[in-house]
Amino acid sequence: MDKEKLERVEELLLATKLQNERGSMIYSADSTLTKGDFYFLGQNPGGNDEAKYGKDTILNQLLYSAEHNEYLEGEWKGTKGKIHQHNIKRMFEDLELNLKNIFSTNLSFIRSSQTETYSRNLKQDYDIFWPIHEFFLSIVEPKFIIANGAQPRDFFKKKMINISNKEKKEMRSYGKYIHFANSFTGSLITEKLTLENLSVLAIPHLSNVTNNLEDYENYYKDGVEWLKSKI
Hints:
alpha/beta; six-stranded mixed beta sheet; 37% helix; globular
């Protein structure tokens, strides 16, 4: 990331006063913060707290992660973590997109092992970190948001206007719940940002099924193939 971008992101982060929280801001290499068709977005960083950059803080990750790609190079802990990482990589392979080149981040940058153990009000933090996403989006200018889970999907649905082409695909059942892949198109217009004809492609959170590697084939694959047809 060039000096000007880094200084601006750091300035926006410091304005949140959350820079010393445990967490991570950019999951892809810094060089992916450039114009591109895709913006991969999750809920918040998981419990993979490798001390690569000294103390595990959002600010340290921003300043020192450089070209590290957490999805491709991170060593995720535990069976569930490793399967979640595997599912993400498989999804992009099946979408025929190069995960290495796609800007990847989360709505909140604060780390938790699961939603229930998040230390603050998660939805309030989405709003606190939103100005940083506005800056990221103004650079990437994506045509597609790829949403890992319902929370980033619903967050953008509330932010966007003129939503059309709403479609969903029922996926193979898992347990007692019925899950859907979703797609919709609209405009994201703020004082600092205008993205028209923006499409959101959403899959149920890729950690929903983390019993074994074969669960991707049994649960996610047909939904991912349907999302591929929307690109």
